[in-house]
């Protein structure tokens, strides 16, 4: 990983450029131009949001080509109702999948990260490389035999298969995030003195490490929750419409022959709400997670 | 001996389950896929099939459709990486010195990252409707309304590989530019202010300051960004599935082709495509993993 991931990234982001004391190379004109450009790009990024939101409140007769960019003639909640009726069971399955998956991989990742950062053993570098590579593999390369393995293990298709898959393939990224986190915040001396006092690994982990791990956990929990929630590939390969997560539900709602655009857009919004909410409420850590999790696709 | 084991042994014990799990589910299953790709298992039914060596690979690389998917992937990857790096770096540069409302800009630029590729694909697929003229929808309709009709185009469903894949790259660029911006912004903010001041005192122009002092500091970040974007692009599947559908020759890349092959239950061929995909990703990632681990052990 780069230096960025090692440093508390969200803090770096908030650090303001120093002003005043020296010339910072800006003029009033350049500041205005910069601000205007930023606003322009803001419009570009928000453009899809505008159409999606207005369309989701339109009646089906109102979603014609000509009126696509205009506000609804009559505002209606019908598309939301329709999308919700379709998506509700998928949403429940996704929640019961993403929350435990995030917690389990975070816990394993925390223990692993601690060992790799501060309780090393001969060959720890090799183990690190072994784990790190697991983060990059395209799921396609394991997908075919994975189905057979789950069938042989008699794992019930649906939430259980996905839970198992996401927990296992989430371990590398969580391990990496925690390893970098502990390497930054835990001084070697602290562990050494605990060892001198005769504390073993478990005692050191529980008494010293766990209490200072909260922000590390917030990062991995958010990261795992988001990537499990947004996953489509595993969902498509390992589950079916009747037992799959919300990405499958949205693909079904927005696919097919006669697409109800208003309901599709409402559906896209509904399925994005949980991750957006996490992002809005915990954005500071979300950014930290993005930095640390830089390498997961 | 026992005493030394007591110091590091527990650490190894903690890692053992992970090593076992990843050993099986990552390396073992890759081995199984590789094994299937060397057989004649052109059906879903399991059982023993004869080994055919590299025949499946030879067939793939002799096939117009597979070569087409590789070319599409190449164009997509170039367009996606270049586009995302340009926007990400540009936004970071614009924000870097601090502007009023910086946190709003940052949050808005970054928010598409929180959305699933399926959701954004559903939305962008609809925005990039190929109809033009009076029937225009989506962005073409917006061009129409803004009297920019000459910009209307058929997006991903045209005849040119470049414009088709550029249209697929557009939503991906929209989703990930903010992420690259955040990486670069953190990089800029991590550079000690003394460096800039020293350069300014020495009379360096703004251009020279960036070119010779600041950008070189960001090269490790640029490398990470390149690897992240590269391996994301190589694996890209959801977005194409949602925008163009899985059965479009125009926008087919190996990951999509693999899905189509699987639907026809040709396991050996699907496995061979997966292994080619893995090999392409590995060429990109193995040197990077080796470099990272070596650097880490040097720091210790």
TrEMBL record, chain A:
It is a multi-pass membrane protein. It comes from the Bacteria. Residues 91-282 form the ABC transmembrane type-1 domain. GO terms for biological process: transmembrane transport. CDD domains: TM_PBP2 (cd06261). Gene3D superfamilies: MetI-like. Pfam families: BPD_transp_1. It is found in: Cell membrane; Membrane. GO terms for cellular component: plasma membrane. The keyword Aminoacyl-tRNA synthetase does not apply. Keywords: Membrane, Transmembrane, Transmembrane helix, Transport. Its main location: membrane. The chain crosses the membrane at residues 35-57, 97-117, 124-142, 162-182, 202-223, 261-282. Belongs to the binding-protein-dependent transport system permease family. This is Glucose/mannose transport system permease protein. It comes from Kribbella caucasensis.
From TrEMBL, chain B:
It is a multi-pass membrane protein. Its main location: membrane. The chain crosses the membrane at residues 12-30, 73-95, 107-127, 165-188, 209-229, 270-291. It comes from the Bacteria. One of its GO terms (biological process) is transmembrane transport. Pfam families: BPD_transp_1. One of its GO terms (cellular component) is plasma membrane. This is Glucose/mannose transport system permease protein. The lineage of its organism: Bacteria, Bacillati, Actinomycetota, Actinomycetes, Propionibacteriales.
């Amino acid at each position: 990983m780069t230096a960025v991931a090692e440093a508390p990234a969200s803090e770096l982001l908030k650090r303001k450029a120093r002003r005043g004391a020296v010339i910072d190379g800006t003029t009033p004109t350049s500041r205005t131009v910069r601000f205007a450009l930023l606003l322009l790009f803001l419009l570009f990024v928000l453009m899809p949001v505008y159409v999606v939101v207005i369309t989701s409140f339109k009646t089906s007769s109102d979603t014609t080509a000509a009126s696509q960019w205009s506000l609804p003639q009559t505002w209606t909640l019908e598309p939301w109702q329709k999308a919700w009726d379709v998506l509700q069971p998928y949403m429940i399955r996704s929640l019961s999948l993403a929350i435990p998956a995030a917690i389990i991989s975070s816990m394993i990742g925390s223990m692993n990260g601690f060992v790799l950062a501060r309780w090393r053993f001969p060959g720890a570098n090799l183990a690190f490389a072994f784990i790190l590579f697991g983060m990059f593999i395209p799921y396609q390369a394991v997908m075919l035999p994975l189905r057979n393995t789950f069938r042989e293990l008699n794992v019930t298709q649906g939430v259980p298969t996905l839970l198992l898959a996401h927990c296992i393939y989430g371990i590398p990224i969580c391990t990496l995030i925690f390893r970098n986190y502990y390497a930054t915040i835990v001084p070697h001396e602290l562990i050494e003195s605990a060892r001198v006092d005769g504390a073993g690994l478990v005692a050191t982990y529980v008494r010293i490490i766990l209490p200072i791990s909260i922000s590390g956990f917030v990062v991995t929990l958010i990261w795992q929750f988001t990537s499990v929630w947004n996953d489509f590939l595993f969902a498509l390969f390992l589950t079916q419409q009747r037992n799959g997560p919300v990405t499958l539900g949205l693909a079904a709602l927005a696919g097919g022959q006669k697409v109800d655009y208003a309901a599709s857009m409402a559906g896209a919004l509904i399925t994005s709400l949980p991750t957006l909410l996490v992002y809005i409420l915990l954005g500071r850590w979300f950014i930290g997670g993005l930095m640390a999790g830089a390498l997961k696709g | 001996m026992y005493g030394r084991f007591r110091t590091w042994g527990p650490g190894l014990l903690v890692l053992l389950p992970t090593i076992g799990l990843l050993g099986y589910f990552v390396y073992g299953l890759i081995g199984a896929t590789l094994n299937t790709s060397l057989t004649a298992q052109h059906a879903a039914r399991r059982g023993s099939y004869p080994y055919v060596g590299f025949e499946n690979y030879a067939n793939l690389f002799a096939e117009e459709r597979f070569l087409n998917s590789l070319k599409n992937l190449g164009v997509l990857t170039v367009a996606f990486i270049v586009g995302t790096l340009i926007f990400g770096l540009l936004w970071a540069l614009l924000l870097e010195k601090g502007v009023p409302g910086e946190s709003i800009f940052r949050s808005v630029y970054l928010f598409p990252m929180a959305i699933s590729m399926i959701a954004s694909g559903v939305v962008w697929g609809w925005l990039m409707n190929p109809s033009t003229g009076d029937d225009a929808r989506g962005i073409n309709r917006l061009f129409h309304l803004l009297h920019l009709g000459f910009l209307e185009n058929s997006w991903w469903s045209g005849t040119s590989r470049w414009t088709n894949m550029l249209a697929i790259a557009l939503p991906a660029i929209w989703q990930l530019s903010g992420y690259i911006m955040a990486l670069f912004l953190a990089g800029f903010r991590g550079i000690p202010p003394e460096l800039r001041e020293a350069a300014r005192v020495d009379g360096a122009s703004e251009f020279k300051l960036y070119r010779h002092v600041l950008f070189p500091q960001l090269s490790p970040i640029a490398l990470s960004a390149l690897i992240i974007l590269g391996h994301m692009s190589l694996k890209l599947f959801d977005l194409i599935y949602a925008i163009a559908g899985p059965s479009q020759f125009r926008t087919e890349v190996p990951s999509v082709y693999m899905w189509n092959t699987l639907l026809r239950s040709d396991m050996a061929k699907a496995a061979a495509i997966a292994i080619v995909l893995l090999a392409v990703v590995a060429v990109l990632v193995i040197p990077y993993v080796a470099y990272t681990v070596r650097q880490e052990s040097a720091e210790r």
